[in-house]
Amino acid sequence: MKTIENSPLTQKLSAFVALSEVELAALERLHQRRRSFVAGRDMVHQGQSAQAAYILSKGWVCSYKLQPDGTRQIVDFQVPGDFLGLRSVLLRTSDHSFEPIVDIEAAEVLTVDLLDAFAQTPRLATAILWAASRDEAMVVEHLVGIGRRDADARMAHFLLELGSRLALVGMGGKEGFECPLTQYHLADALGLSAVHVNRVLRQLRECGLVTFRDSHVTFHDYQGLVTLAEFDATYLDQTGPLLK
Fold first, then answer.
1. Phi and psi at residue 191, in whole multiples of 5°?
2. Does domain 136-236 have CATH number 3.40.50.720?
3. pLDDT tens per residue, range 189-206
4. What is the rounded CA–CA span in Å between residue 213 and residue 1?
5. Angle at which helices 151-168 and 122-148 pack, to 10 degrees?
6. 4-133 fold
7. Beta-bridge partner residues of 33
């Protein structure tokens, strides 16, 4: 069983702040209500009120918006170390849904527990605000990707971003990472058809840049992919602790 010191969230927040024993204890309390969720069944519904937030410990989740005609748009994917529904807790109503892509483990965080942790450990609150700000910056990049990048660059940027996010929690790097996403997930998130996704991935593979096969992403030419995507990881802000 993982200790809080090497939990994904701790690893992630440690990129911003050198956590003290008091702050680690507060994080431990936030992880007290551990729950499991099965793949394909929403854990939070769009429009749901009086909900908890969650800290994802294991597995992948997608967040999506439902349209009036019943279609959906994937907004982002959550990986271990991410908060789910943090904004919705503070605003009291969820404006989107969360669906586990695989069976997951997550800690349920009640609003009162979160506010208590913020009051008792202001630096931890600042670190969580940093994490939420990264999430917002990623959404901005996704909007730019869908609106301005061609399909090849859009896919390359997305895979590089995932690799960087997973590297922060010890689950990926410049060699590649495990990835349970299907081509349908990629199509929904990137504004492409599944056929177009297949074509783009084949082209990137044939160019010797990256292979996505059997739930694994392998970077063959990391710098070449960075050049294609014009990927600047500054918005991810994970170069080392800023607060001591």
1. 70, 35
2. no
3. 999 999 999 999 999 999
4. 30
5. 160
6. Jelly Rolls (2.60.120)
7. 108
